[in-house]
Amino acid sequence: MRFLVDAQLPWHLAKALSAEGHDAVHTSSLPAKNQTPDADLHRLADQDERILITKDSDFVASHLLEGKPALLLLVSTGNISNEELWALFRANLKVIEKEFKSGVFVEINRTELILHG
Question: Model pTM greater than 0.90?
Answer without folding.
Answer: yes
